[in-house]
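User: For my dataset I need records formatted as: sequence, then structure tokens, nothing else. Please produce one.
Assistant:
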Amino acid sequence: MKNIAHGIDLVDFPRIEEMVKRHGERFLDRIFTPAEQAYADSNENGVEKLAGRFAAKEAILKLIGTGWRGKIAWTDIEITNTPTGQPEVTLTGEVKKIADKLRIEDISVSITHTANFAIASAVALAKSNESE
């Protein structure tokens, strides 16, 4: 595997908290999958978890080189956790099509939080030409 792209993003919790207060379920359903919402709901610090996932989605959009536009839906990117807590990425829809075109095999994501911010880093991996 070889690293082919990287994206990073920083999100402040008050921004996400304000969007949830202002737009409620409409915002949540537009941005987060049911699994992501359930994960946030199951945590005391749900806004922190949502902010981390939002940052991860932005980082992934940066690494595929598109940003959020066209036919891309926020829910084309789902961030869940392995049993050990490591975030993992599932792509669907337009984002999956773009990733396939770029020959992305896997995306590794890391998310961290401070008192008011979440930061996410995403690295795209692809098969190297030697292994084909």
